[in-house]
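As agreed, record copied across for absentees:
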Amino acid sequence: MSTPASTKAPAPEQPGATPAYGALDRYFKISERGSTLAREVRGGFATFFAMAYIIVLNPIILGSAKDMYGHQLDHGQLVTATVITAAFTTLLMGVIGNVPIALAAGLGVNSVVALQLAPRMSWPDAMGMVVLAGLIVMLLVASGLRERVMNAVPYSLRKAISIGIGLFIMLIGLVDSGFVTRIPDAAQTTVPLQLGADGHLNGWPVLVFILGALLTLALIVRKVSGAILISIVAMTVLSLIINAVAHVTTWGLAVPTWPGNPVSTPDFGLLGKVSLFGGFGKVGLLTGILFVFTVLLSCFFDAMGTIMGVSDEAKLTDAQGYMPGINKVLFIDGVAVAAGGASSSSATTCFVESTAGVGEGARTGFANVVTGALFAVALFLTPVATMVPSQAATPALLAVGFLILAGSVKEIDWADYTLAIPAFVTMVMMPFTYSITNGIGMGFITFVLLRLAAGRAKEIPVAMYVVSAVFAFYYLMPALGLT
């Protein structure tokens, strides 16, 4: 549907030749979805390596902040909390939801927790608000409201969300690799991004990314099974060699050096350190509700966009763009948000990097079982899991972003401007604001306003009115003095 068939099913592994895997095959519907066990395993590995950076990044974001009492979270405990929550929720999504959508601590939400919530209350209070947001998400799913919101989104906007995610993950790949960098505000320039660190491509890490991107795309063009995973492994080995010879200092978070002691002992000290309602006593009822609402809104629509994009890319949707059994997936996402708060690793949500596994051929929850198992192993082998540099993993995001864009852009009704313009806004705002939620919100508001302007109010689903009003209120909160 959204990716050329030739990239979905390489010749050596045609679905018709897929062997039966007994109970495993029947439970996960591997053959039924035109996949193979090998593809699912490769997809699980590819997704893990594409999102393994969260093991390093989430503890840095949360660990660098202080609560109102000056307390900081322990880095080692944060690593354990991040990894175990990702393992549990990813396995849960795979076994119960049966979709190749992995979960981990959400970027963006963890910054809200660290920079907005924690400074005005204790860490347990802040994490309690995350748990409350997760419980509300579960209630919305149980009531059917969340599914109705998703089903109310017009088909062209669904495709725009997929394309926006494709562009977004391409930008993530370019930024995380160092191929594109942010120009410091002190430069007083109207250009926010630049090529490389200084306007030029310099250094071994960027070369690794370029070679990885070329290798990944060449393997895809050649229809080689395991293209993404082969590239990640090859570039990691190359990075280890380069670093051993040149002693590079500009890799970023993960330095490709084989650890002297690859085994680490997990520290579960943060699990369960939660105060559900303590934060309201610190900031007041209204502010507390707004804090919960902020976390809820980000988790709700970030996950919605990711689920839509990944499920469409994996061909798990029907002709109208709906995914059968989506309520289970949405409920597990709510469980994940609450679980992230309960473990003090911040809200856990669906990761857009799951598209790396889908691009590798993953179509079922068994890929999640593989990814979740790798996270579980990472509890004890964190030094090994974090030695894969972003420059080796991010070429996967560049390739998958292109495949999503190539397969979905023709599905949008460009002749109807009340659909085409909101679709355009959705697509460009995701990468330009570095937020899936913002892209969805601005696209929804634009859709409602243009349909009203065109005198087509009756064609606007009620859910779109409600959601657009919520987004409008959210964007107006600072002007109203409510943040």
About this structure: Residues 5-476 form one domain. Strands lie at 103-105, 180-182, 193-195, 348-350.
